[in-house]
């Protein structure tokens, strides 16, 4: 079904930000250094986040819910720290969004144009009986800076830079693929996102970077 999200691209958005191209080197260097320290503070023990239950937004988006607890509280705090960090820079504009932790698994906006006219909402019959389903856990072990283009080989977002959240492991850049030659590491021509777990960054054609800090999820084994 076209509306389903590929399991290789599942994620949780923490914050969204637009960054002017001329500021991206300064901001993303500071991001990796400062927010990397914060990520290690919150997630140094590579904690497990449990996904349990299904919810919806206006019956057009179906998502998995993270269980409440100390780890979810830390994600809230980290999201606030990220907003404060990006708000410091003149070339950065933070999207005014409320952090509502969720992992989207289906959204009608992915449907072909013709189908969108026919399907206005997701029937309760599709998901309601699974509303209390236990979906497993995801370990938060590293922060990655991903370009939000899909790697056709892996089906995942391009990983530009990454660092472990473990307090005893040093931050290190991920290798740059041939697709990024001529670009700043961590950027691409189209889009950019910033994720926790597996991360990314993107830019529009007007030269502004649209970023989201996200946690990517793998299906439980």
From TrEMBL:
It comes from the Eukaryota. GO terms for molecular function: protein kinase A regulatory subunit binding. It holds the Pfam family AKAP7_NLS. One of its GO terms (cellular component) is cytosol. GO terms for biological process: regulation of protein kinase A signaling. Residues 4-160 form the A-kinase anchor protein 7-like phosphoesterase domain. InterPro entries: AKAP7-like_phosphoesterase, AKAP7_isoform_gamma, Cyclic_Pdiesterase. This is A-kinase anchor protein 7-like phosphoesterase domain-containing protein.
């Amino acid at each position: 079904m076209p509306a389903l999200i590929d399991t290789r691209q599942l994620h949780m958005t923490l914050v969204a930000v637009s960054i002017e191209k001329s500021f991206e080197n300064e901001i993303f260097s500071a991001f990796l250094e400062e927010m990397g320290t914060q990520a290690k503070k919150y997630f140094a023990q590579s904690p497990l986040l449990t996904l349990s239950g299904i919810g919806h937004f206006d019956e057009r988006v179906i998502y998995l819910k993270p269980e409440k607890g100390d780890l979810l509280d830390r994600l809230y705090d980290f999201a606030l720290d990220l907003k404060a960090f990006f708000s410091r820079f003149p070339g950065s504009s933070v999207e005014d969004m409320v952090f509502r932790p969720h992992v989207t698994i289906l959204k009608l906006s992915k449907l072909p144009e013709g189908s969108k006219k026919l399907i206005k909402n997701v029937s309760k019959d599709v998901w309601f009986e699974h509303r209390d389903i236990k979906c497993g856990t995801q370990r938060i072990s590293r922060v990655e800076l991903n370009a939000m283009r899909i790697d056709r080989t892996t089906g995942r977002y391009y990983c530009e830079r990454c660092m472990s959240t473990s307090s005893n492991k040093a931050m290190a850049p991920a290798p740059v693929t041939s697709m990024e030659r001529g670009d700043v590491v961590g950027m691409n021509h189209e889009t950019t996102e910033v994720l926790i777990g597996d991360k990314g960054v993107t830019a529009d054609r007007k030269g502004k970077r649209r970023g989201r800090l996200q946690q990517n999820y793998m299906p439980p084994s």
